[in-house]
């Protein structure tokens, strides 16, 4: 097998469609070579090699790779006219990770590899630039020490060992910036760094270039299994067994002096989606400097620079003097970069996120990828590209990450509230959205209060888990491309970065702004769209959803086969869902209305009655309430089908638990408190989820089914008189035998006929069942002899197929996910392999009996994109999900059909 793919000088063995093998970064480095974008030469070690490494270990993988890697290094040497490990004319490389799916900043990179005490002199002589050589060496020892040799800080309050040494040296010298250190300082740093390595690891820093290379390659492989990489994968649903590729690439130097620079750019605005080329760069800097927020980055375009200066309160004089844009500082390079960004966006037909370095006036591209973006930007960019005729409507839909639409449905700050709020500071609008919460200063404390804002000088990949939990993120340093900003946009989380007025003291757990102190636990609010930070909590309102969002919904309707319905229990939910485009109700849980108003008393009376007469008397009181509820829901869904599930939960859920409430019921029913208590304890079950519930209720107490049917049919007939079209579908829950359904079907039909006769009018209705007990799925052909429709209740079906109690699974599911026993939570993502068989088989067997049997799904899975795709593949008529997931399901349903 081939494990190494080379690229360079306009040639490449890889291509963009080889991401699985070469990782995203490697495939795109190859592709850029092929389309004539200047990229330093190098090679990619495949993701398969990473998987082999995980199985076989270091020695075996080095054996397997050695010949190919040595040949590939030769190729780079030839193209760059240098020699790896040579002391006079050394080839230096970067060693970079790159998985199939981009995991920004998740894994580790080493730059300037190949330097040692000899070759640093060679580099200095060759470049005629001592400072550059030693700055590169200092960076290399620092990165290699961190990534490969495990030199980490001792505790979260401490900075890492190298940073500490840097701080000490800078303080002694009385300088602020890395760039203010002179050659002698840098030499001292290298010595001190190496001493620290020897002290902490017990080994000398490796001098041999090849030893360095193999160390770095295997460290990149190892970085696939770090905690932060695992957390990121779980968050994004990236499988653990993909592995990462390793890219080894000739260095280009952005730290060679004032005619060199490094930067990051986006072809469009990743926050808002606007078609504006933007980004940040630093003169005389290398790699991560821009992202890490070590110095204040400068803007790429003049326009962006002017906007930035206004936000930061920087005068035009200072801006031009200290923070000029690339467009102003290096106009020739800027022109070239602008041409490259246009070329790349045109080639990939999507917004690109790129990394570049300028070495002594020459532009090099180091990375391009489809940029991470907010939900709002995702929608705007897709629709803009449609209008620009770059992509068609199907492509627009495929560009939508359905889950991300959720962000657009979230609240924004109320205009009045925000104008009267107290502004504390301004930073950069790094990721739009509105967030109020209590301050925490450490990522692992993000759960300390119910809603938190994570406040940091800057964030790093270690902070990921806390960033997921926090409502918003605020940093004192770093620009629009800082780690915090990029990750927040990826998560659609509100973020303000680079609020320079903030002085954070981790030890005291406070931040100071203009001398005022804000403690951990204080409330603040962030507006990620303007970069403003406010004191206290600010009121929010719902956003409006028209324009591009609406267009995308229209495209979804055009390209979908399945209908999308909603799960709604109240007229209000039904209306919300209808506004989101729901075409009917797939699940109306009647019992959810039992707790409203005076209903609960009658419900309790029914449950506590000792005989049928008592129950009937109580049910008579409930009837008008239920009828009224159904009228409201039918009206909201005028013309669309409404599936109503008959009473389902164990009755014990409705009994009064406090003594006062029990006494109340005793008085109401004219029985003693003791009798009430006895009745309640009689209702207790050891396994309520497998107990007296579902159709077992209606079959033991048929009067309940009679009352509910009557309420449904009467409501439908009443509305018919008002010109509203009600289409009830009466659904029998939790059947395991055909007889259970037959019995309920008889009661329903008899009751409906009775009501028709009484009212002298008729309406159409269906009787169907939920398929949620595995036995019902197995016998679906028989069930379909009675049922007019199936609705897969995949919550219970999952519970019963796995034998996992839904209410207790949180005791072991997180551990199962952690240990990889399960890949995903089966209650969130439908288990296609197992539970999916029941769904598929149930559908097929049902349709064997009734070819046009209507089939749908009403579990939580009905709004989960992967599960929706599965539902489409088994030929369901509709999916049903909670109102706020309707837009997501609509797009997922269309994608499944494209
Ligand atoms: P990440 O996964 O964090 O994007 P990268 O591998 O892209 O990590 O590299 C980190 C930084 O180092 C980036 O800014 C990148 O542009 C820079 N870099 C990587 N390789 C080289 C190289 N050969 N020459 C100069 N800079 C490089
Ligand atoms: Mg990168
Ligand atoms: Mg159920």
TrEMBL record:
Domain of life: Bacteria
Residues involved in Mg(2+) binding: 772, 796
The species this protein was found in: Saccharicrinis carchari
Similarity field: Belongs to the PEP-utilizing enzyme family.
Cofactors, names only: Mg(2+)
Record EC number: 2.7.9.1
Keywords attached to this entry: ATP-binding, Kinase, Magnesium, Metal-binding, Nucleotide-binding, Pyruvate, Transferase
Active-site residues, as the UniProt record annotates them: 483, 858
Domain Pyruvate phosphate dikinase AMP/ATP-binding positions: 20-389
Residues binding substrate: 589, 645, 772, 793-796
GO MF annotations, alphabetized: ATP binding; kinase activity; metal ion binding; pyruvate, phosphate dikinase activity
Domain PEP-utilising enzyme mobile: 452-531
This protein's name: Pyruvate, phosphate dikinase
Annotated PEP-utilising enzyme C-terminal domain residues: 548-897
Task performed by this protein: Catalyzes the reversible phosphorylation of pyruvate and phosphate.
Catalytic activity: pyruvate + phosphate + ATP = phosphoenolpyruvate + AMP + diphosphate + H(+)
């Amino acid at each position: 097998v081939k494990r190494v793919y080379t690229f360079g000088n306009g040639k490449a063995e890889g291509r963009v469609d080889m991401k699985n093998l070469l990782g995203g970064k490697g495939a795109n480095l190859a592709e850029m070579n092929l389309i004539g974008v200047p990229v330093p030469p190098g090679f990619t070690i495949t993701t398969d090699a990473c998987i082999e490494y995980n199985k076989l270990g270091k020695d075996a993988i080095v054996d397997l790779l050695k010949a190919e890697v040595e040949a590939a290094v030769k190729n780079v040497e030839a193209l760059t006219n240098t020699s790896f490990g040579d002391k006079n004319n050394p080839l230096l490389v970067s060693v970079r990770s790159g998985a199939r799916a981009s995991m920004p900043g998740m894994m580790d990179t080493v730059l300037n590899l190949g330097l040692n005490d000899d070759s640093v002199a060679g580099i200095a002589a060759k470049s005629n630039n001592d400072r550059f050589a030693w700055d590169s060496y200092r960076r290399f020892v620092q990165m290699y020490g961190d990534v490969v040799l495990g030199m980490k800080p001792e505790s979260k309050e401490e900075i890492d060992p190298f940073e500490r040494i840097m701080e000490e040296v800078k303080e002694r010298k009385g300088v602020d910036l890395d760039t203010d250190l002179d050659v002698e300082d840098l030499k001292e740093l290298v010595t001190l760094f190496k001493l620290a390595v020897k002290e902490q690891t017990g080994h000398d820093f490796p001098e041999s270039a090849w030893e360095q290379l193999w160390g770095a390659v295997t460290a990149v492989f190892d970085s696939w299994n770090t905690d932060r990489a695992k957390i990121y994968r779980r968050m994004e649903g990236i499988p653990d067994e993909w592995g990462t590729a390793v890219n080894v690439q000739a260095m280009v130097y952005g730290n060679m002096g004032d005619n060199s620079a490094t930067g990051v750019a986006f072809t469009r605005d990743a926050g808002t989606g606007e078609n504006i080329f933007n980004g940040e760069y630093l003169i005389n800097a290398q790699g991560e400097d821009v992202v890490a927020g070590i110095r204040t980055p400068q803007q790429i375009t003049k326009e962006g620079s002017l906007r930035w200066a206004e936000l930061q309160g920087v005068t035009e004089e200072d801006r031009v003097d200290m923070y000029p844009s690339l467009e102003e500082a290096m106009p020739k390079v800027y022109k070239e970069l602008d041409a490259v960004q246009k070329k790349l966006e045109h080639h990939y037909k999507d917004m690109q996120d790129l990394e570049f370095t300028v070495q002594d006036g020459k532009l090099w591209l180091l990375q391009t990828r489809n940029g991470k973006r907010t939900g709002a930007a995702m929608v705007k960019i897709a629709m803009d590209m449609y209008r620009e005729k770059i992509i068609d409507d199907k492509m627009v839909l495929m560009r939508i990450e359905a889950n991300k639409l959720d962000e657009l449905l979230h609240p924004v700050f109320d205009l009045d509230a925000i104008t009267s709020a107290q502004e504390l500071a301004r930073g950069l609008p790094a990721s739009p959205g509105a967030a109020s919460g209590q301050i925490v200063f450490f990522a692992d404390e993000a759960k300390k209060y119910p809603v938190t804002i994570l406040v940091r000088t800057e964030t790093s990949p270690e902070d990921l888990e806390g960033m997921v939990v926090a409502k918003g993120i605020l940093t004192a340093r770093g620009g629009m491309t800082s780690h915090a900003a990029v990750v927040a946009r990826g998560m659609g989380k509100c973020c303000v970065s680079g609020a320079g007025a903030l002085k954070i003291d981790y030890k005291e757990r406070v931040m100071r702004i203009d001398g005022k102190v804000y403690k951990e636990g204080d409330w603040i609010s962030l507006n990620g769209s303007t970069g403003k930070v406010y004191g206290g909590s600010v009121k929010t309102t719902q956003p409006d959803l028209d324009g591009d969002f609406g267009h995308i919904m229209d495209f979804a309707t055009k390209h979908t086969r399945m209908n999308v319905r909603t799960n709604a229990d109240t007229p209000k939910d039904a209306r919300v869902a209808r506004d989101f485009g729901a075409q009917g109700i797939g699940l109306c849980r009647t019992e959810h209305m039992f707790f409203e108003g005076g209903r609960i008393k009658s419900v309790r009376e029914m449950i506590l009655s000792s005989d049928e007469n008592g129950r009937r008397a109580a049910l008579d009181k409930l009837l008008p309430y239920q009828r009224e509820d159904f009228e409201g829901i039918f009206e909201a869904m005028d013309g669309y089908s409404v599936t109503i599930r008959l009473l389902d939960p164990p009755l014990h859920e409705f009994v009064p638990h406090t003594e006062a409430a029990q006494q109340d019921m005793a008085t109401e029913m004219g029985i003693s408190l003791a009798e009430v208590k006895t009745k309640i304890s009689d209702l207790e079950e050891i396994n309520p989820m497998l107990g007296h519930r579902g159709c077992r209720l209606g079959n033991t107490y048929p009067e309940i089914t009679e009352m509910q049917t009557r309420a449904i049919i009467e409501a439908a007939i009443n509305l018919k008189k008002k010109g509203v079209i009600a289409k009830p579908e009466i659904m029998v829950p939790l059947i395991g035998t055909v007889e259970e359904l037959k019995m309920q079907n008889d009661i329903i039909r008899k009751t409906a006929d009775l009501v028709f006769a009484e009212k002298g009018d008729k309406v159409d209705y269906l009787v169907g069942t939920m398929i949620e007990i595995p036995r019902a799925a197995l016998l679906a052909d028989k069930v379909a002899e009675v049922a007019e429709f199936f609705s897969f209740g995949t919550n219970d079906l999952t519970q019963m197929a796995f034998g996992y109690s839904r209410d207790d699974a949180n005791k072991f599911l997180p551990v199962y996910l952690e240990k990889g026993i399960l890949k995903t939570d089966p209650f969130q993502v439908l288990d296609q392999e197992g539970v999916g068989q029941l769904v598929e088989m149930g559908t097929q067997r049902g349709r064997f009996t009734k070819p046009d049997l209507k089939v749908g799904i009403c579990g939580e899975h009905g709004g989960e994109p992967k599960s929706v795709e599965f539902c489409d593949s088994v030929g369901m008529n509709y999916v049903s999900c909670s109102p706020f997931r309707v837009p997501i399901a609509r797009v997922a349903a269309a994608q499944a059909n494209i």
